[in-house]
Amino acid sequence: MFWLLATLAYLLGSLSFAILLSRLFGTGDPRAQGSGNPGATNMLRVAGKKLAILTLLGDLLKGLLPVLVARYCGFDIQQQAWIGLAAVLGHLYPLYFRFRGGKGVATAAGMLLGLYPPAALLAICVWLLTFHLTRTSSLAALIATPLTLPLLAWQQPGALLPMTVLTGLIVWRHRGNLRDLFAGRERHF
């Protein structure tokens, strides 16, 4: 049952709301515009607030739902976290879109919301504060995600290993942003 749920979570995570919404509303593929990332931040740049919000909600839900289903099925917190990570992997490397996915931040936030809401609240608050101060979405994600790890180590240690892997994946997916941040070329709002 665990592997079935993990596979279904990956397939759900592979649905790219940015691409689907851009096709539905005729705004063009977000992978070919702006930053080239099919996520809410780039959708805000290339398609406006409405589609960005819908993308954000869709990406959050595809991280949240697998964790809630895993909890309902009686899986422990670590198994829930691995299943949630499968959804994030689907977002990062979507089967349906030639494995060209987003950076995973919103899907990871949904996963974290299902696993331990106080950690999700911490990440959201840190993201919002960092974004408010810097106007840089990538920097906000790179600061907010690792800051959840000490809280999880203290309150939900079973989720720590999968969340550490997730943090590493998010940093990896932001490696171009890190280069641009250090070179002073990163995009701001």
UniProtKB/TrEMBL annotation:
It comes from the Bacteria. Probably interacts with PlsX. Pfam families: G3P_acyltransf (PF02660). InterPro entries: G3P_acylTferase_PlsY. It is found in: Cell membrane. Its EC number is 2.3.1.275. Signal peptide: none annotated. Catalyzes the transfer of an acyl group from acyl-phosphate (acyl-PO(4)) to glycerol-3-phosphate (G3P) to form lysophosphatidic acid (LPA). This enzyme utilizes acyl-phosphate as fatty acyl donor, but not acyl-CoA or acyl-ACP. The chain crosses the membrane at residues 81-99, 111-133, 153-172. Its main location: membrane. The lineage of its organism: Bacteria, Pseudomonadati, Pseudomonadota, Gammaproteobacteria, Pseudomonadales. This is Glycerol-3-phosphate acyltransferase. Keywords: Acyltransferase, Cell membrane, Lipid biosynthesis, Lipid metabolism, Membrane, Phospholipid biosynthesis, Phospholipid metabolism, Transferase, Transmembrane, Transmembrane helix. It is a multi-pass membrane protein. Belongs to the PlsY family. Pathway: Lipid metabolism; phospholipid metabolism. It catalyses: an acyl phosphate + sn-glycerol 3-phosphate = a 1-acyl-sn-glycero-3-phosphate + phosphate. GO terms for molecular function: glycerol-3-phosphate O-acyltransferase activity. It comes from Metapseudomonas resinovorans (Pseudomonas resinovorans).
